[in-house]
Amino acid sequence: MGKRETEVATVENVRTVAGPVVIRAAQLIDAGMDVSEVKGLPAEFAGSETLSGFPPSAKFEKVGECVFGEFIGMRSGVGPNASRLYEISIPNGESQTTVAVWGSAAIDRLFDSAYPPVQQGDRIAFIYVGEKPTKRQQNPVKLFALKVKRGELPVQTSQAV
Fold first, then answer.
1. For residues 161 and 148, what is the distance between their CA atoms, to the nearest angstrom?
2. Are 63 and 20 spatial neighbours (Cβ–Cβ below 8 Å)?
3. Is residue 97 assigned to a domain?
4. Running DSSP on this structure, what letter comes out for residue 35?
5. Up-side HSE of residue 82: CA atoms within 13 Å toward CB?
6. In a domain, 109, yes or no
């Protein structure tokens, strides 16, 4: 067998560690359009909820702004930039409201690196932690932290036949 030479890669740690982040709710932007009344549907639809467009979306501007709640799902290829759209059910008084978080390179990378993968029913929080300049002098990239609390697995019971 021949001798193999390998190169050792070194990793330079240039991460900045931010101090504690104080959490506050992110602003929600509701650019949807509601329908006041729908006529001509069968009676079974009377009093039902009318959904149209996208849910309100989170706008992150100040460090510490966050959106947290139960993960509903993710849509891919949304809008002109084929972005991801993450949907979260958040508490709203005694009910729940669905909120959208638009994907970005930073958010998508966090979501993809979660192991095990984030599942419907997990509780998640997107926390805005600041900006970092880009090498190409474009708009700075917004950085986030993703917190995941795994949903409880359903208890399987066997029944005697």
1. 39
2. no
3. yes
4. -
5. 1
6. yes
| 15 lies in some domain | no
How far is it, in rounded angstroms, from Cα 161 to Cα 129? 55
Residue found by looking up tokens 């005694």 in the block: 94
Question: 């949807």: which residue's tokens?
Answer: 32
Residue 129, phi then psi, degrees to nearest 5? -115, 0
CA atoms lying within 13 Å on the CB side of residue 77: 0
pTM for the model stands at 0.71
The DSSP letter of residue 9 is P
- Here the CATH number for the domain that contains residue 92 is 2.40.50
Q: CA 53 to CA 101: how far, in whole Å?
A: 14
Q: For 107-150, how does the pLDDT look when each residue is reduced to its tens digit (9 = 90+)? A: 999 999 999 999 999 999 999 999 988 888 888 889 999 999 99
Look up the domain containing 117 and give its range.
24-29+51-149
Alpha-carbon distances of 148 from 10, 13, 41, 52, rounded to whole Å: 30, 25, 41, 29
For residue 66, give both structure tokens. Answer: 């966050």
Split into its structural domains, the chain has a count of: 1
